[in-house]
Write a structure and sequence with these properties.
The protein is mainly beta and about 120 residues long. The protein contains no helices and eleven strands. The radius of gyration is 13 Å and the shape is globular. The chain starts with a strand and ends with a strand. The relative contact order is 0.32.
Length: about 120
């Protein structure tokens, strides 16, 4: 399995932008679909976005559609989450995960998870 490591989290003001990165070790990265999930204090973990192995398919939660963009660079073993027009309700720990199956929004389909990176959006 690959091991995702997230970075890029931080504190931003509402309306601002932030780009998260997820680097996975190993030369098999291109065989994994990748996803982003988040969990806010007192709330359930929720799906954010996912991308297929060759970037030909993406999925987004309704809450972030039109504001967030997921992409990947297989040559760099990296998946990105570009977050624009950030809102206070986007505040959460963001996790990157890898799936050996096809693109999915279900946590159970992702077998390997990163440690997470904190995103805080102030009003």
């Amino acid at each position: 399995q690959v091991q995702p490591v997230e970075s890029g989290g931080g504190l931003v003001q509402a309306g601002g932008s932030l780009r998260l990165s997820c680097v996975a070790s190993g030369q098999t990265f291109r065989f994994y679909a990748m996803g982003w999930f988040r969990q806010a204090p007192g709330k359930e973990r929720e799906f954010v976005a996912a991308i297929s192995r060759l970037s030909d398919t993406t999925k987004y939660a309704d809450s972030v559609k039109g504001r967030f963009t997921i992409s990947r660079d297989n040559a760099k073993n990296t998946v990105y989450l570009q977050m624009n027009s950030l809102k206070p309700e986007d505040t959460a720990d963001y996790f990157c995960a890898a799936s050996q199956l096809y693109i999915s929004s279900r946590p159970r389909d992702f077998g390997t998870w990163g440690q997470g990176t904190q995103v805080t959006v102030s009003s």
